Amino acid sequence: MADLRINFAGIESPNPFWLASAPPTNSGYQVQRAFEAGWGGAVWKTLGDPILNVTSRFAAVSFNGQKVAGFNNIELITDRPLEVNLKEIYETKKLFPNHAIIASLMVAPSQEKWHEIVKRVEDAGVDGLELNFGCPHGMAERGMGSASGQVPELVEKQTYWAKEAAKTPVIVKLTPNITDITVTAEAAVNGGADAISMINTINSLAGVDIDSWNTIPHVGGKGAHGGYCGPAVKPIALHMVGECARNPLIPIPISGIGGISNWQNAVEFLLMGATGVQVCTAAMHHGFRIVEDMIEGLDHYLDDKGIASVMDLVGKSVVKYSDWGNLDLNYKIVAKINADVCINCNKCHIACEDTSHQCIDMLKDLAGNSQLKVREEDCVGCNLCSIVCPVDGAIDMIEIPSGLPPMTWNERQAALGVASCDSEK
Amino acid sequence: MSEYQQFLQERDRIDFLLQNEYKIKKITENLSGAFVEFEKKKHHKDESEYATIHITTPEARKYFSVILIKQQTEDA
User: Fold this and answer.
1) Which reaction does it catalyse (chain A) (predicted)?
2) What is the pTM for the complete model shown?
3) Which residue of B has its CA nearest to A332?
4) N or C: which end of chain A has fewer CB within 10 A?
């Protein structure tokens, strides 16, 4: 069995699977149930001045039979007094001393407020703090959450204030509702953060009821934007983790969050630079026990790969993630349709003919049977045919030699620049 | 004519000049594609011959770029 333990910025955890700060970590009862199920850590639902919530808080987007492809919520931070939460944190930590308990925090941007809550929460025995600079709804209207997280100066300053009082590691949770997340990640680093976590939820409106014309969800006929998460946001989150992981100005650990639903998703985030992952929507959809499959799957994966520790996976794909200008323009793949597997549904032909490069011909073989064939010389290797194909193994994308040496756009432009200079001589 | 056939034609025109001792002198890229200016230095004279090819296909733009990089490496 591989070693699944992680050390995240000094916070030790029996495995890399943490529950994210959200409804599943609202109370000691829930977090204890989660630890019993196998979760390695939990980020407690955000603590701050207790709020008031509305009813009708969640909405999901289902797509083509997949329930909860995306999840939208307009619930705010904890509505319980700090003392109640701290008592339950203390009790839970006592029962599960080897599990990681992180307190998510959100207060108004003042030094005094940050000092007060950091001290009180650390006295309850938490292993670390996560500053919530990402919650996009409700609290942002009051200058907190993503309203703070979208202003690099506020991220830096508040991180600094939290660090002034903190004895445990400080994780800064970033909002994706910003053009370039590395800017706020760098601000967190400059403020002294020990780690960052991403992504918080994305501004969203789950839908509009076309009969009642109400928003989904609605509160007595009125709606407000919420935060979007779940499987649909995973590619966005993975990109943001990768961008931070490969940025030399952000040399601190990353906790990956965003649509992680199984062990494979977790491995992707670890490979792209996350030292651990946080999960919410999948647990809300399927319950805490999904972590059993996550642990088992990760363990088998590591054994199959001959990797002794999950920490050895961290960041292994980061070097493979770059800018477009560094990709090889002469790398060539083309589609190959396997006639023995193809069911001649023509989806690839239609997709290619209508929306791509018109390189799949509908032919008849000698017996008069329909046959789809790729004209390789016209195929640009876009992958669309294999993406729309409903049959596994019917279309392979295969490498073919281009006959040309590797050349990136950046190399090409540099050469053209030299040519222009030389021609002026 | 397919884009591939067009590429083959443009590649042939580039190769023809290269085989006749022309070298890429200057490249101008604009909304119409690329204009590749070739130069052939005459022996024992301080004179040159010039030729320009208008390249319209992306594959040919990659092709002349590879030639240019190779040329610059050899000249270095």
Assistant:
1) 5,6-dihydrouracil + NAD(+) = uracil + NADH + H(+); 5,6-dihydrothymine + NAD(+) = thymine + NADH + H(+)
2) 0.95
3) B59
4) C
